[in-house]
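Retro notes (design track)

What went well: tokenization of the new backbones is finally stable.
What didn't: we kept losing track of which sequence belonged to which structure.
Fix going forward: every design gets posted as structure first, then sequence, in one message. First example under the new rule, 167 residues:
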């Protein structure tokens, strides 16, 4: 790790490497002065009733993570994925999965609990917010099957472990 690189920046670099190793397209964007890592891939499975899942990972390091911060970032990441996906409209043989990821060494425990409590879903889009406490080296996200989007759950759990836990 470069001496000036924070633990949060090092974590984002490791996520970028894991996304690339999993054959995701990766790039950086500027969201109002905030550098944001974006990873994207699409997978088709017959067991998903012949649908394609477009999976977006949208990650950033911030000074502090609170419930409003992760809630707003989750909404923004979901809107970004809907705008960016292209192709058939979501819901027509295609779905969207989103990992909105915030990383910080200052994390409100309520924000961590919010991320771990449940997935955030809308029509044909499933978000699993990820809160990373870089000081404690702890990753919080929903890792169970939900009722909505349950067919994709094992795929999302597997990708979550791969991208954020390095497993």
């Amino acid at each position: 790790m470069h001496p000036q690189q924070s633990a949060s920046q090092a974590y984002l670099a490791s996520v970028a490497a894991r996304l690339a190793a999993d054959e995701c397209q990766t790039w950086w964007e500027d969201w109002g002065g905030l550098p944001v890592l974006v990873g994207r891939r699409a997978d088709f499975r017959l067991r998903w009733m012949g649908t394609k899942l477009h999976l977006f990972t949208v990650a950033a390091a911030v000074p502090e993570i609170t419930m409003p911060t992760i809630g707003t970032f989750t909404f923004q990441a979901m809107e970004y994925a809907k705008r960016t996906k292209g192709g058939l409209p979501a819901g027509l043989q295609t779905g969207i999965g989103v990992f909105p990821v915030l990383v910080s060494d200052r994390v409100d425990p309520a924000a961590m609990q919010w991320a771990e409590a449940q997935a955030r879903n809308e029509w044909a889009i499933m978000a699993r917010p990820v809160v990373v406490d870089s000081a404690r080296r702890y990753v919080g996200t929903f890792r169970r099957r939900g009722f909505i989007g349950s067919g994709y759950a094992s795929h999302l759990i597997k990708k979550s472990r791969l991208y954020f836990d390095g497993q």
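Added context from the reviewer: Residues 7-165 form one domain.
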